[in-house]
Each structure stands twice: as structure tokens, then as C-alpha cells.
Design a protein that fits this description.
There is one protein chain. The protein is mainly alpha-helical and 91 residues long. It has helices spanning 2-79, 82-90. It has one domain (2-90). It is built from two helices and no strands.
């Protein structure tokens, strides 16, 4: 009978060790999960700011494109004499 009690105590101690180990693993996994959540929030923040920067660059490039179109139009109008006609019409 004493052996049964001793075996039960040993089994209980092993179960307690397993539970303690599982508790440590769960704590570690919780910590890792928290770190991943923080990393994901930071990545989303960086992605948002990058998106805004790309949109700003796109707007600037559109402005440059239309300035080039305007410059080409003025050069073409000047080379065919259209600007002289417009100047005469306005005077």
C-alpha cells in the first residue's frame, strides 16, 4: 500500500512538472504572440506611410508629365507660327 501511495505521489509530481513546463511554454507562446502583434502593427504603420509617400511621388510625376506636355505644345505652336497668330489676335 505504501508503494501505491509512493507511486501516486511520484505520478502527481511528474504531472505537476509537466503542468509547470506547459505553463512556461504557454507563457513563452503568449510573449511571442504579443511580439508578433506588435510587429504586425509596426509593419502596417510603415506600409501606410509608404503608401502615402508613393502617392505623393505619383502626383509629382504627373505634374512633371503635364509640364512636359505643355512645353511640347508651346514649342510646337511656336514652331508653326501659331503663337504669332494668337499674339496678333489678342492685340
Amino acid at each position: 500500500m505504501a508503494d501505491n501511495n509512493n507511486n501516486a505521489a511520484t505520478a502527481a509530481a511528474k504531472n505537476l512538472e509537466k503542468m509547470s513546463g506547459m505553463s512556461k511554454k504557454l507563457d513563452r507562446h503568449d510573449w511571442i504572440l504579443t511580439q508578433h502583434e506588435e510587429d504586425i502593427q509596426e509593419i502596417r504603420s510603415v506600409a501606410t506611410s509608404t503608401k502615402l509617400a508613393v502617392e505623393s511621388i505619383e502626383l509629382t510625376l504627373n505634374q512633371i508629365k503635364y509640364m512636359a506636355y505643355g512645353g511640347i505644345a508651346v514649342y510646337t505652336a511656336d514652331s508653326i507660327g501659331l503663337l504669332k497668330v494668337i499674339k496678333l489676335a489678342l492685340l
